[in-house]
Amino acid sequence: MTQHRKWGLFFFLTPVLLWLTLLIVLPHIDLLRMSFILETDTGETEWRLSNYASFFKEPIYWLTFVRTAIYSIIVTLLTLVVALPVSFFITKVARPGTRGFLMLLILLPFWVSELVRVYGWMILLRESGVINHFLLKLGILDQPVEMLYNDAAMILGLVYTSMLFMVVPLVSVLESLDDSLIEAAYDLGADMGTIVFKIIVPHATPGIVSGAIVVFMLTLGNYLTPNLMGGKNSLWFTEQIYNQFIASFNWNQGAAFGFLLLLLSSGIVWLGLKLSGQTLGKVVR
Amino acid sequence: MNKSLLSIVMLFLVSIAAYPGYTGAETLSLLTWKGYAPKVLVDKFETETGIRVNVTYTNNEEMIAKLRATRGAGFDLAQPSQDRISSVQKKYRIYQAMDIRKIDTAQIIPSMLASVKKNTSVGGEFHAVPFCWGTSGLVVNRKIAPDALDYSDLLNDKYTGRISYRLKRPTLIGLAFAMGKDPFSLYNDTDAYKALMEEVGQAMIAAKPLVKNYWTNGDALLQSMRSGEVHLAMAWDNGGWKLHAENPDIDFVAPKSGALGWIDTFALPAKAKNIDAAYQWINFMLRPQNAATFTNLERAPTASAGANQHMDAVVRANFDRSFPQAVIDNIKWYPPVPSKLEGIEGMILDKVKASR
After folding, report:
1. Which of B59, B61, B164 to mutate to test binding with chain A, by most A CBs within 10 Å of its CB?
2. Which of A118, A135, B161, B164 could form a disulfide with B233 if both were Cys (CB 3.0 to 4.6 A apart)?
3. A187 located within any domain
4. Is residue A4 part of a domain?
5. What letter does residue B334 receive in the DSSP assignment?
6. With pLDDT > 90 as the criterion, what percentage of chain A qualifies?
7. What CATH number has the domain bearing residue A97?
8. Can you name the CATH fold of B2-133+262-325?
9. What confidence tier does B96 reach under pLDDT thresholds 50, 70, 90?
10. What does the domain layout of chain B look like in residue ranges?
11. B342 and A231 in contact by Cβ < 8 A?
12. What's the pLDDT band for B348 if we cut at 50, 70, 90?
C-alpha cells in the first residue's frame, strides 16, 4: 500500500518538478550568475557586484523603480475601490439568476488578448478617436483633445486590465458573509459607512489582500499597457529591463534589474501583509 | 467499436501526413522585417522549390537578442542591417561565413555587394550580402509644415504636439548631424561620442513637450499621419511614399543635413539547419522580377541589378522626386557600429523617456 502511494506520488509529481526545475529554476540560476558578471572593455568577464551597484548609483534606475512601485500601489487601491462595490452588487444585491450573467460580463473582455484590449482603448481615446468624435458632434468640444499618452490614461488601462483579478477573490469572500449581519446593523441604526468599514471590509480582508497581491504583481510586471497607453512619459521598470537586454545588449545589467524587481516587489508585498495583519498562508487559502 | 475507433485514428494520422506541412517537406525559417517576405513571393517560392517558408517578423535589436539567446540556432536566414553585424559577430559568433560560390553575384549591384562584404567581414571572411536599402529622414505634411526641412525641425516649437519620432539610435544620429556634428567620425572615440550624445539628449529632453508620442510601430505612425494627428515625423522613406500615394500633401523629405542610409542584408545564423534553402531564397529574392515585385509592394529599392526595368512608374517617380543626384550624394551611410556605443545610447534614450 505505502509502496503504491509512493509510486503514485512520484508519478504525479515528476511533471511538476521537471517543469519547475527545467523551465523556472535553471534559467533563473543562469540569470543570477549572469547578474554578478561584469564585462570589461576588453571583453573579459569578472565577478563583481557592479551591476547591482549601478542601480543605486544612477538615479534614473531607482527613480524609475520608485515611480513604477508607487503607480502600482495607486492602481491596486483604485482597482479595489472599483471592484468592491461591483463584487458586493454581484453577491448581495443582484438576483441569483443574474449573478452568473454578471460574472460573465466581467469575464468577457478577458477572452481577447491584452493587446487587443489596449488597442481598443487607444481607438476610443486617441485624438481622432471615438470619444472625441462624439464630443465634437455633440458640440461639447470644439477642438479634439488628446486623451492618450498621459498618466491618467495609463492608470485607466491598468485598472481595467486588473479588474477581474480583484473581483474574483472578493466575490468568493463576500459569498460567505451572512446577510443577517448587515440587516442587524441596519436595525441597530448603523449608517452606510459604518457597515462598509465595520462589517464588510473586515470580513473581506483575506480576499482584499490576496486580490491586491495579484493586482500589484501583475501591474508591476506589466509591459504592454504602460508602453502603449502611457506613451512618451511612461518609463516602466519592465521597459528598463527590456532596454538593457535588447537595446543595450547588456544582459548582465538586465539580469540584475530582474532580480532587484523580484526582491523589491516581494519586500513591498511582505510589508503589505504585515500592515494588514494577514499571513500569506491565510491569504492564499 | 474498437476497430472503427482505430480506423478513425489511422485516418487522422494519414490526413496529417498528407498535409504538405508534415510530409517532411523542407522548410526555411526566416527571421526578417515586416514586409520583407510578401505573400506573393513566398507562394511563388513554394511552388518553384517545394520549400515552405516560416517567417518571423522583428527588428535589428530583437534579431540580435534572439540569435544570441540560442547562439545562432532556430533560424536558417536572418536579415540584419549591415552596420549591426561585425561587432555582434566578433562578440557572440551568431553568424557563419557566406559562400560566395552559392550566390548568383551577377544579380547584385557590384558596388553594394563590395561595400557590404567589406563592412561585415570578421577574420577575413564576410557574413552578409545586401538585399535592400533605404533611408531615414522626415515624413512631412507639406500643406501644414512646408518649411520643415531638417532633423532640427523635430525640435521646433512651431509644430508643438504634432511631432513624432522613435526613441532609437537613428534619431540621436540624425539630430547630431543637424547640429552640424559628424557622429560617425566619433565612432571610435567613445568619450567624444558620449559627450555629443549627451548634448543631443539634453536637446531632446528640452523639446519633449513638443512631441506627440515616440512611435514604436511603423503602421501606427502612418495611421497618425493619415488622420492628421501628426504633421512631422522622423521615419523611413518608403513609409512617406506610401502615404504620398494616398494623400499628395504628405511626402518623404530628405533632410538638409543628409538622409541616413541603411542597407538590410541576408546573413546565415551560425547554427542554421537548411543552408541550401537559405541560398535558394537569397538568389530567388534578388532575381530582377522578384526584387521588383518586392519594391513595387514595399517601395524600398533592392540591391538587385536590373530590377529597375520591372518597376512600376509610380515607384520610380518616388525616387526621382525625393532623390535627385545631389541628395543621393549627401546620404550618410551607417558605418559598422562598435560594440560599446549601444550602451551609451540606451542610457541617454532612457533618460529622455523618463524626463518630465
Report:
1. B61
2. B164
3. yes
4. no
5. P
6. 50
7. 1.10.3720.10
8. D-Maltodextrin-Binding Protein; domain 2 (3.40.190)
9. very high
10. 2-133+262-325, 134-261+333-354
11. no
12. very high
* CB atoms A246 and B227 under 8 Å: no
How many domains does chain A fold into? 1
CB count within 10 Å of CB B71 equals 13
> Which of B161, B343, B350 is the closest to A235 by Cβ?
B350
Cell of A89: 452588487
* Spatial contact of A208 and A80, defined as CB atoms under 8 Å apart: yes
- Would residue A237 count as lying in a domain? yes
Query: Which element (helix H / strand E) includes B214?
Result: strand B211-214
Residue B28's nearest CA partner among B58, B3, B55 is B55
Which residues in chain A have their CB less than 8 angstroms from residue B91's CB? 43
Asked if pLDDT for residue B8 goes beyond 60, the answer is no
| DSSP single-letter state for residue B20 | G
Q: For chain B, how many residues are written?
A: 356
Are the beta carbons of B346 and A244 separated by less than 8 Å?
A: yes
Report yes or no on A45 lying in a domain: no
B211–A63: do the CB atoms touch at under 8 Å? no
Count Cβ–Cβ pairs < 8 Å, chain A vs chain B.
67
CA dihedral A46, A48, A52, A58 (to 10 degrees): -80
CB-CB under 8 Å, B342 with A248 = yes
Residue B130 has phi, psi (to 5 degrees) of: -70, 145
Closest Cα in chain B, distance from residue A128 (Å) = 7
Q: Quote the pTM value.
A: 0.84
Which residues of B fall within a CB distance of 8 Å from A45? none
User: Domain residues for A229?
Assistant: 59-284
